[in-house]
Amino acid sequence: MTDSTFERPATRLRIAVDEADPRARGRARGHQLAAALPGAIDTYDRLFAAGSIDEDTVRADADRALDAIAAFRPRLAEQIEGIAAGAGVETWRVAALNARTEILARSRTVPPGECSTIVRDSGAGAIFGVQTWDWHVEIGPYWHTIDSAGGAHRYAGITEHGILAKIGVNDAGLALHFNILGHRDDGVGGIPVHVLAACVLEEAGSVEHALELLREAPIASSGSFALFDTARAVLLDISPEGIFEVPEVVPGTWLRTNHFLTPAPAAHEKSWLYQPDSGERFAFLQDRLDRTRPQSADELVGQLITGPGEPPVTCNPDLGEEFGQRWASLATIMLDPARRTARILDGTPAEHDSRPWYELRA
């Protein structure tokens, strides 16, 4: 039985930090997360266990990830350490959250979630994007909006408790949407993809600058960043094989679900993770976009609404499934780099007129 109702917090945490010192910035975030972070840690402990990943392996992976982060960007490692100190938890626990994608890549029994992203150049001087963030329904209580200042750039968007960044826009007008992909060589040892997102949002002043940062980073796992500012948009396949730019699906429109769209990494994809679902969602959305030319982010949200008999772009959880197998569209996010805004719906695209929206300006 499919049931779209699941637990959401009565009040969504809205975290704001403004500290020039990265450790102090992390500590300030940790203080605000102190009551809720243990629940997030416990839920991921259960997901790791469901994937047959024991605690010793999780801790070793977390320590290895933190070492890689510290070597590449010490200030990001300091923020992770600060979050742990502010929340009163062990540092490796927060490092494991930031590397949760890479750690879960070890599992064949707990697959990653699903996300669908559209970025549109309207041709009228405006580039905007929208996506669903689809993940384990049990993480529903454990995400928050974030307004982070003190680094090179202020950024705003959403992320999970304890994780530095996920989806957002910064005060330079650089926006980032984020999907997970699966490559057979994915693992720990490089910069976790969520930490890469934080690096881009905190440091990059343009799409070109973001590409430079990504090409400097040691990467051992996969994901997709849709990066756009007021002048340019790029969609990337990020993998242990390298970074590859994905062409537009129709003129002025970039589309992403959860499979590689360039040949090199696609040849080594973990196709069992997402197919046929990802391909079906992609084909469905491509057909819609072939027939429409949305001129605003609000119009794009409508493209992501699906119902019975259609591919689950709007993802409602089947609560009859086992723990680790229940997916939900936990949030819907619209990014507008011209206005430096992230508009966040605490719900699925189909709930756009019945669930709370939060607007943040970087």
Poorly predicted regions? 1-5
Helical content band: 25-40%
Strand order of the largest sheet: 1-4-5-6-7-8-9-10
In N-to-C order, the SSE pattern is: EHHHHHHEEEEEEHHEEEEHHHHEEE
Beta strand %: 15-25%
Give me the secondary-structure category.
alpha+beta
Number of strands: 14
CATH superfamily of the domain at 109-361: Penicillin V Acylase, Chain A
What's the main sheet like? 8 strands, mixed
Mean pLDDT: 94
Indicate the radius of gyration in whole angstroms.
Answer: 18 Å
Shape: globular
Q: Which structural traits does this protein have?
A:
about 350 residues; alpha+beta; Penicillin V Acylase, Chain A; six-stranded antiparallel beta sheet; disordered N terminus
Report on the architecture of this protein.
This protein is of the alpha+beta class and 362 residues long. The protein has a domain at 109-361: Penicillin V Acylase, Chain A (4-Layer Sandwich). Helices cover 34% and strands 23% of the residues. The protein has twelve helices and 14 strands. The protein has helices spanning 22-33, 37-50, 55-72, 74-87, 91-98, 100-104, 193-203, 207-216, 263-266, 271-274, 277-291, 297-303; strands at residues 14-18, 115-121, 127-136, 143-149, 155-160, 167-170, 175-179, 224-228, 233-239, 242-246, 253-256, 327-336, 341-345, 357-361. Strands 1-4-5-6-7-8-9-10 form an eight-stranded mixed β-sheet, covered by helices on one side. A six-stranded antiparallel β-sheet has the order 11-2-3-12-13-14, with helices on one face. Helix 3 crosses helix 5, helix 4 (74-87) crosses helix 5 and helix 7 (193-203) crosses helix 8. The N and C termini lie far apart (41 Å). 55% of the residues are buried. Residues 1-5 have low confidence and may be disordered.
